[in-house]
Amino acid sequence: MQRPLPGWRAALFAVALSAAPPALAQSLQQRVEARLAQVGPGPRFGLIVLDADGRELVAIQPDERFIPASNTKLLTTAAAYTTFGDIDRPDGAGGAAVRLERNGGAVPDVVLVGNGDARLSSADDCLANCLATLADAVAARTRRVGDVVGDDSLFPDQRWSPGMSWNNIPTRSGTAISALSLDDNELPLRVVPTRPGAPPRVELLPYYRVDNRAVTVTGRETNLVVDRMPAGDLVRLSGTVAAGAAPELLRLGIDDPAHFAAWRFRTLLEARGVRVGGQVGVRHRPAGPLDDPKRRGGAPSPRPPRQAPLAKLIPPPLAADVVRINKVSQNLHAELMLRRLGLVSGTGSIADGVVAVQAMMERAGVPRTGWDISDGSGMSTYNRLAPRGVATLLRWIAAQPWGARWRETLPIAGVDGTLARRFGGTPLEGRLFAKTGTLNATNALSGYMTAKSGRTLIFSAYANDVPEGVTATKAMDEALALIAEGN
After folding, report:
1. pLDDT value at position 77?
2. Which residue in 9, 157, 236, 266 could disulfide with 148, CB within 3.0 to 4.6 Å?
3. 236, 253, 270 — which closes off a domain?
4. Residue 353 in 3-state DSSP?
């Protein structure tokens, strides 16, 4: 039996143990693993942290593949800087245009042409990139037109990416993708409470019909449910809205953006005294084998011929759109960016965009086993990223001439974007710059942070298979705080 140490010797041993090297105390890796383990069974975590020289500080399943959710936008936006070069100039290529076509009739048809821009607006207070500017150009040329046609044939008709859940289609998160996009391809539905027991008043552009089954109530919070079947125009509104509450604003996804843009353009023309004698139509380009680089052997399919426009818009620089994509995680804009990447050497298809991403990943030294993507936004459940692959990409980005500008597009902990409400009041507030990711049972966070020592660390963290009711983000955030504190 071991005899207890005398008091003074025990105290001396305790002091020695506290000053012991990491091998005798619990290592940083062990403390991080212990914090993640507190979440309990179910979640599968992946994490890697590197210093600026690429030395690993912590690694937990770094080569496992995870559903990344909106961390996919890291690849899309970095590829934009890599592929397009100077994206700080006005976007002369992407702006929507309008042309008049004579098709044997007495009056011309109006064709609204999409060139892949994400920021075309029909808002009453629009100041730039405005659909009204194109309507003014038509009204100045003619007072009578035939059909109003929305042409989004620049891209193949791939409105949703493989692996996206169909139930997201009616929502703003899953609205359709089109080379002719307007107002973020969203339709705002305003719900105004009335008297208790009566249906609320709904305000919506008459592009959709509304089956209003909601009820105004007292003493309860607003709890509204909105649903619409894909390809349908009937919106079902149910639930309750609190009497006396402020109006509730819901945003609905649009299934055929080119048709909606043409429909909206018709209303603007008529408001300017232009008589529209025909119908609202669309011109899509069906997706086919030519839009898959694996099938066509690398040869791009021909793009549709374009006539000279009557008027064309010049949107703001693409760099400003990268900020919006990363800061607020805008899905539509990320998807359009991927398709525009695909125009560089292909047809503007999803697959062509992935080819551009692959070229970047090869330059960054990321192994092909470390990534797979099927979209540009992260809504696809087919996407997979490995923490080590993402950290390798982030370290490569930091060394690029545009790396600092790209990093500024990321949300800042406790300050803005999707990180505005995370890390507040902690040592990482204002010192962590990262892209978030949230999908069913999935959480992600990858980027850069400034450690206690002042040096920059690169990290990529994932949680997949998170059970209902379990919060993984808190554990991930505290694990990163531990690492920052220990470096």
Report:
1. 98
2. 266
3. 253
4. helix
